[in-house]
Each structure stands twice: as structure tokens, then as C-alpha cells.
Amino acid sequence: xxxxxPSVLLENAVNEFASLxxxxxxxxxxxxxxxxxRKPEEVEAFAGALTKLKNEVHYxxxxxxxxxxxxxxxxxxxxxxxxxxxxxxxIQDVMQVEATGQFHGLYHVLGGIIxxxxxxxxxxxxxxxxxxxxxxxxxxxxxxxxxxxxxxDTTNFYIYxxxxxxxxEVRVTQIARGVAVGGELEYTDEVTLGRSILNRTxxxxx
Amino acid sequence: xxxxxPSVLLENAVNEFASLxxxxxxxxxxxxxxxxxRKPEEVEAFAGALTKLKNEVHYxxxxxxxxxxxxxxxxxxxxxxxxxxxxxxxIQDVMQVEATGQFHGLYHVLGGIIxxxxxxxxxxxxxxxxxxxxxxxxxxxxxxxxxxxxxxDTTNFYIYxxxxxxxxEVRVTQIARGVAVGGELEYTDEVTLGRSILNRTxxxxx
Lengths: 206, 206
Description:
2 copies of one chain form a homodimer.
Chain A: H1 8-18, H2 25-37, H3 40-56, E1 58-59, E2 66-67, H4 73-76, E3 84-88, H5 91-100, E4 106-109, H6 128-134, E5 141-144, H7 150-166, E6 171-174, H8 190-198
Helix pairs in contact in A: 1-2
């Protein structure tokens, strides 16, 4: 479809949607025409939710997770294990870990990972603020839950080196890598399968 | 992922995106977090384009296509064949036909097709306004370009019956159905292939 839009207003709205990641021009047009069929107050609410979020959102001053308040609900909670911190790349990862219901400690959102190719160094991330939390908060364990990419490994190692130098008493762990629950060996890549053998655990009967 | 959003503002914005067709909650979250990383004025522009479109858009008073003006550029053009009208279901279809560069007449956007299941009858569509155009605009040919569904066939037949009754001098045609250009017989459904044999045309060498 070429760009013969019958309306400049329509074209502008399509351009905005098409600027979002993995939204093509055809999808953008479909979404805009869908909004056009909605009630004016619904479109107003849609637009309002975006600007309100952008203008009023906070980032927790401790863990840097997104929050409506200066201190996020997790950091403010009295029911969390305050001596364990899970280090993640971004906000989605916090939600993913929370959704498991298996973690009851605190988080630290780095806001990215070290990536020299993209010009992202340790100073661009919330690493210093992580190291600064250890002593005043009396943190006993730091769980690294970063992606298993070269950048993730680099970031893991950077954090590990600083923690083991400055706070040798802190336990540094990483999340287990292995064959997915329900996953078949046949469809598991060799690296993951190899790791799952090296990191095997005692067999327990439930 | 369950609904443990760390921020109500974030959740509201995700809800709005997830209300769009074929946008799930994970995709909605990804889009919202992408917008959060943009500059405030960019988010403002995104929201503004939507409300401006909704509040200021026109529909052409003749063909009912979307337009910035009371009369759309196609209806206002002096370079179109003003005696041929192509009847389509919606705005996207106008853009699709325009993109082919093969049609130089005018359009008529019905705004839907007859669908008793959805409670859409002829009076809910721009059919009367189509019939009313024939005489004053001296239209010679009406091309039906509606979908080949039961609803499309019903609508085609309804329009055809009224045209042949009231304006027997008008030629009523429909777009050709057949095997797609570049399409292989092996992967063409029988109905389409059957139609392509019934509607065969003279062989011409280019």
C-alpha cells in the first residue's frame, strides 16, 4: 500500500502508531481506524492515559522500578525479605519474576546491561546505586537475573567483581539455567542441555 | 504474566493499548514502555495526533471516504472519470484500490456490509446515498468491489436489484475473482479456481 492517505490527520495518527516497535503501516492504519470508530471520550481517555503516564510516573528511588510513589510498593512493603536483592535488566523482568510468586525479596532494576557496541557502560546503569545499597540495607544475597548474552555475562561479571572486592561477605548467586519445565531434550539447544547436566541437582521425590 | 503492575498509571496505559484489536497485554506493555523511553514532547505528539484526528476529521459528503475537507480530494479532482463509481466496504479498501493505480473513477464507501447477524441492515449503510448519486452525477457504471462473503453477496445483490430497477441504463460490474497473479494452482482453493475457469478471458500476448 503506498502512502495515498485521504487525510493528513489520518496519516499523522498512522505515522505515530507506525513509529512503535514492530507495528507496520497496515497494522497502524487498522488500529487508528478502530479508534476512529470509538466514542470521542474513549479516544480522549486513550490519549490522556499516555500523557499522564509520561508526565506523572515516578521511578522508585531505591530499586528504580516504575512506581506511582517515590518509594515503590515492593521496597515499602514489610512482608518482603529485605536482605535479598534480585538484579534485573528492566521493569518487565520485575513483573515476570513477581508473577512466579517464588521470590519474596527486593529488586534492583539496572535500566539496561553493559553493551559497548551501543555505547552503554557501567556508569549509564544503576550499578553504583546497587553497590551503595549493600551496607546500609545489610543485604546478604544478590541474585543476578540478567540475560545469558555476552552483554549479560559482562554485566554479571562486572557486578560480581565489585561485590566480591568491596563486600566479600555478600553471597552472589545467579538464576538456574537448564531445560525448561515441560521442555523436551530433543528441542533443547546443546548449550542449555550441557548447562543443565553441569548444574544438576539432587533428585527429590515430591 | 498476571496483573501485578507496579504503577496504576502504567496499568491504565497498558489497558488502553490492550483494548485495541489483536494487541495482547504483553505487547501493550512493550509499546507503553517504549513510549516511556521517548521524549515527553513525542508522547504529547502521539496523544495529540489521536485526539486531533478524532475531533477534526471529516467524511466526504459525496463518497463518505475520510477527508480533511467537506469534499474529499478524489471527489474534488478534475482528473477522474466521473461516470464510474467503485463501491467498497470501507476506507482501507479505497486506499487499496488507489494503490493499484488502475482505477481512475470515483468511490462510494458503504461503511460496512449488510449483516443481519450483527443487526446491520441497508439503512445503516450509505446505500441510499449511492442510489441518489446516479442521476445527478450521470453515472454510467457501478463497480461492486465488496468481499466475497455471504454478507458481501447479499449487499451486492441488494444494490444490483435497486440499480437495475431504478436505473436500468447503468452498467453494474464486479471485480474479477480468480487465481492471484503469481499464485500457483496447487495452493488455490477450489471455489476460486472454479471461478477463474468460468470467468476465463481471451488469451492475449503482450
